[in-house]
């Protein structure tokens, strides 16, 4: 198959053509952001003193943490009410930021269903959508939200195509869209080819570049949340590869955000190697990017009771803090049931803030186990990166597409039809995620052996052969309540 | 009217714009292990696709997973489409995080009422295990 | 001053003389435990399948943890209701034990006030005492409680003198009293000389020995909770020195329980060095003792809000788990306000149990920082131990008394009049407790230097000279809620 | 009757069988820093000892700390003993975790009512800072 996409910066001509023909016409509210220079001016004004990139920079330099709760309601009033409540009932303002998410209809560009959800929510007097439909509400409403908060806003915009959402968010002074492609197809897509997904995301990244070049530093999230059940190496590869794609479009700050598997050593190794290799590969290609890291709480099934959820909130936050990750993203005790309430989100902020008080600057001490884990992840990711660059003749975008097509870029579970799914992962005796089956991944032999040995420890500890049922049990281990 | 013969077959998928597939994935594994024929449609599945698959495998039941809080919206009109397609009596289950507002989730009888009104036979909480769902379906099919 | 006490096992003659003349006559309920052999038989029967020592042994061998919540109410019914509630609403039964505490009047042998508190509680319909008055209720009521629980019971008996309380507890099938002397005077006493305190505790330890020799293994707690603000080395010294005193009386199992200061590395080092040196010193004197370790949650001021308290509950439990301590003692979110309610204690058990689910067998990996911290604590404790043995001519009890008298055994804050209080401790940049002033402690120079350097890091980080105000702030750091 | 001259002196200690001394210790430091003469009695202090010390230093106030939940019991009769000793008008404060039952702590007006009835001028929650107590006493003494 011929790959047409290239990892190449969109020219202004290309960018504005796409903008006019594809992006702004998606929905009527596209009109509100037509004048880009004006949008940038307003964004500069509105994000004064609460710019996400600059707040991350400040926290990183001080060695402290930015707490990042998540919120999003069907109506603007509900959303503002939630932000104000949490900020009034916790210490978020001192060092925090918001991740606002849209509803899933918006993420699928189904603005009609989103509109129906808005009407329905008004009728029922409850938020019937699982997020704030940014595109339906448009830029003026987004600016209202920006004015209502004391901290920077990030926007979790999209499944396949977050371009219009990002246009609206950035124009409202929110300082973060998303840069992602493989992450997105694995996490939320079904049919879109990777090539097309990369093309859509080049636009969003370029938009961030343009804002930054015009005096509004934008720090997009470069996440690997993926399916919630992926190996540390795959997660890391996704971030590093996508950091190059974003950097090419002129993105100068990136928030490397990794979904935690909840093994302290492996999660820390994963986050640190991701930062190291993103830096290294970007330098190699001549990109000048400043990276920040953040840990995202476990993305699998959560337990349906407050105390068990609080244990997860605390353990996830502690892993991020011990890692030294600047961002500590927060879920809350509603996770198993519904979209977060403001009350529960405020509780999560309080828990995490007090953990920071208690832990101070405590970090995981340098140790052999961590160095080994880092070395293993690094070897796996380097093998994947080099194979991509080779397959793509030095072009990362091409290489990623070829890797997925051939199946040597692969993960276990995803709704996305182009993923081969020939790998299987399982937890080892200490809960770290290991390959039970490496499929066609170009795993260096020593890494393969390492994973095998770690799983053998579990088999020995449990006194049983490893089998597929254990994979299934692993998927639900964190949601089960001890009886 | 004669009663349809039980075929031990089910359609499983996650409805609407919802990409969460793990719940459905665990479910399909459990039902296969229990000897069912399973059409597993993955995630982001439209209503019509569930129904087409049900016709194709002559399913006893459609098991709808919804994890992102908008199941109540996504399931509207599902029974009507089944009836149109000649699946008047097919068993419809739905389960997961089916409503975005916590106040609604905490008022579970209201959730049940709404889904019953929409023609669903049962609605399961997110904490229900796949094994429990399989057991219930067998009972409903009279093959427990 | 001539020291009359010796670290020497009480003869049966001495023991039973004290028993008859001093202990049983303390209160009318002493009569109920007159027949010791019968008490031992009943204890054997009642602790079948829920013996504290054996449960600790089992958990230690499996590498799992025993969760130990705390409870105690003015009336037996309230106490039983609480235990049953927590056991019904958590997974305590699978691997847990209770620490039941008495009210503080009982601890001061003020049984009349305890009686008034019982009557008052009945009248008010609320528990007006801060624990269960075991002596007033006597052995039959204690047996009722034992029968009502599914797990082993430990009894936190005493300030100066827990002898009658221990007699009643052990006779009821509760398998743990306390061995302590310096711990107790520092924590709770005002006027009693250490010599006398050691004498009282020899009796309690000998009682545990007698039960053990007669087929009911008793595992007393050997705690160092102290004032809540003590250096890691001092805590460790208290446990190790007292392990010898208890061992001499025939105590075969000891639960080394250490109050955590909430610095991960220092707390783990402290617990591990305590186990190592208790083992070593007991071997050196020919005692054969099996040790278990447990972490006690921070003993200073707790925050007056549920989420902050939950953060403390989680962080304290995580330190114990990462350490590999077999016992994980639990406080609850009522800590700042009142005696624990059953509801809050059940919540703490759920949080800790889920942390164990999430963390599995994860432990702190071996590392240089931990080894260094261990080495420093070890050097400090060895210096203290050797100086005691020297001053006591090989007798630990004598040496401890001499050390306190001369002031080279010393800690910062205590109600006890015989402590010199010439040392000052302060937290370093990472929250570890360091000597700001070492007073007359025989600190090896490298340890002194180490503490000094660690405090200098804090001064540098905060950009200010170290001063006494920081000591005061440190005392309250964990109870302050970020605003 | 002439009003007694303010002497800027206080007695501080932890009452009853209570060994917790940190609260009182922080308090005495704060009051010393604020220029007060302080008799600091440590922990496990009987009522009479507070009163004797108050006479000795001619104290304006006795600040009673109680951290272990039995302050309500320990403070009974305190004002009576003060009156007997000729300290009819001495200011009595109490603070800390003064009641064992959480239901009582959550009903703070009832706690205040009980201590007022016992002749205490003020009762402070455990979350009150030493600085706040010092500020309040200065106001009550008219020297703020």
UniProtKB/TrEMBL annotation, chains A, C:
GO terms for molecular function: methylaspartate mutase activity. The keyword Isomerase applies. Coiled coil: none annotated. InterPro entries: Cbl-dep_enz_cat, Glu_mut_E, Glu_mut_E_C_dom_sf. Keywords: Cobalamin, Cobalt, Isomerase. Its EC number is 5.4.99.1. The keyword Isomerase applies. This is Glutamate mutase epsilon subunit. It comes from Sporomusa silvacetica DSM 10669.
Automatic annotation (TrEMBL), chains B, D:
The keyword Isomerase applies. SUPFAM superfamilies: Cobalamin (vitamin B12)-binding domain. InterPro entries: Cobalamin-bd, Cobalamin-bd_sf, GlmS. Gene3D superfamilies: Cobalamin-binding domain. It is an enzyme of class 5 (isomerase). Its EC number is 5.4.99.1. One of its GO terms (molecular function) is methylaspartate mutase activity. Keywords: Cobalamin, Cobalt, Isomerase, Metal-binding. Pfam families: B12-binding (PF02310). Residues 7-144 form the B12-binding domain. The keyword Isomerase applies. It comes from the Bacteria. This is Glutamate mutase sigma subunit. It comes from Sporomusa silvacetica DSM 10669.
């Amino acid at each position: 198959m011929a790959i047409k996409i290239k990892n190449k910066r969109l020219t202004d001509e290309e960018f504005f053509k796409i903008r006019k023909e594809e992006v702004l016409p998606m929905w009527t509210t596209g009109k509100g952001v037509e004048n880009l220079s004006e949008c940038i001016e307003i964004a500069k004004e509105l994000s004064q003193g609460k710019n996400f990139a600059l707040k991350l920079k400040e926290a990183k330099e001080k060695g402290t943490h930015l707490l990042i709760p998540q919120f999003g309601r069907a109506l603007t009033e509900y959303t503002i009410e939630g932000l104000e409540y949490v900020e009034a009932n916790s210490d978020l303002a001192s060092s925090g930021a918001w991740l606002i998410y849209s509803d899933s209809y918006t993420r699928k560009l189904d603005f009609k269903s989103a509109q129906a959800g808005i009407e329905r929510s008004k009728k029922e007097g409850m938020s019937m959508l699982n997020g704030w439909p940014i595109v339906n509400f448009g830029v003026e409403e987004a600016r209202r939200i920006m004015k209502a908060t004391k901290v920077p806003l990030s926007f979790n915009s999209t499944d396949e195509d977050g371009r219009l959402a990002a246009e609206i968010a950035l124009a409202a002074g929110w300082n973060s869209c998303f840069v992602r492609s493989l992450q997105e197809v694995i996490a939320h897509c079904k049919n879109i080819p990777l090539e097309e997904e990369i093309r859509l995301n080049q636009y969003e990244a370029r938009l961030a570049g343009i804002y930054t070049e015009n005096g509004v530093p934008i720090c997009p999230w470069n996440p690997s949340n993926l399916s919630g059940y992926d190996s540390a190496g795959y997660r890391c590869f996704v971030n590093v590869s996508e950091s190059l794609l974003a950097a090419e479009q002129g993105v100068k700050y990136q928030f490397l955000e990794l979904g935690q598997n909840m093994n302290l050593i492996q999660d820390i190794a994963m986050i640190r190697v991701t930062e190291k290799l993103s830096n290294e590969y970007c330098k190699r290609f001549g990109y000048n990017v400043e990276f920040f890291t953040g840990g995202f709480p476990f993305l699998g099934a959560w337990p349906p009771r407050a105390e068990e959820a609080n244990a997860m909130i605390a353990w996830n936050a502690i892993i991020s803090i011990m890692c030294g990750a600047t961002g500590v993203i927060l879920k809350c005790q509603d996770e198993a049931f519904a979209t977060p309430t403001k009350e529960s989100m405020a509780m999560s902020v309080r828990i995490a803030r007090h953990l920071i008080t208690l832990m101070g600057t405590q970090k995981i001490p340098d140790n052999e186990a961590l160095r080994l884990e880092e070395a293993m992840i690094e070897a796996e990711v380097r093998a994947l990166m080099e194979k991509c660059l080779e397959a793509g003749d030095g072009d990362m975008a091409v290489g990623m597409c070829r890797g997925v097509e051939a199946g040597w870029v692969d993960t276990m579970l995803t709704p996305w039809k182009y993923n081969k799914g020939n790998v299987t992962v399982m937890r080892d005796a200490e809960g770290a995620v290991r390959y039970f089956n490496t499929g066609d991944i170009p795993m260096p032999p020593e890494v393969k052996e390492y994973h095998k040995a770690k799983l053998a420890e579990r088999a020995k500890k449990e006194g049983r052969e490893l089998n597929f049922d254990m994979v299934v049990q692993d998927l639900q281990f964190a949601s089960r309540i001890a009886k | 009217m004669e009663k349809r013969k039980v075929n031990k077959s089910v359609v499983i998928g996650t409805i609407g714009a919802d990409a969460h597939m793990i719940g459905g994935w665990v479910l399909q594994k459990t039902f296969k292990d229990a000897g069912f024929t399973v059409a597993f449609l993955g995630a982001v599945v439209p209503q019509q696709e569930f129904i087409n698959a049900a016709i194709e495998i002559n399913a006893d039941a459609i098991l709808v997973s919804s994890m992102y809080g908008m199941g109540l919206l996504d399931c509207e009109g599902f029974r009507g489409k089944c009836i149109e397609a000649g699946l008047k009596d097919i068993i419809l289950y739905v389960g997961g995080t089916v409503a975005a507002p916590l106040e609604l989730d905490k008022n579970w009888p209201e959730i049940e009422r709404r889904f019953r009104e929409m023609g669903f036979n049962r609605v399961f909480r997110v904490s229900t295990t796949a094994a429990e769902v399989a057991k219930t379906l067998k009972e409903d099919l009279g093959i427990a």
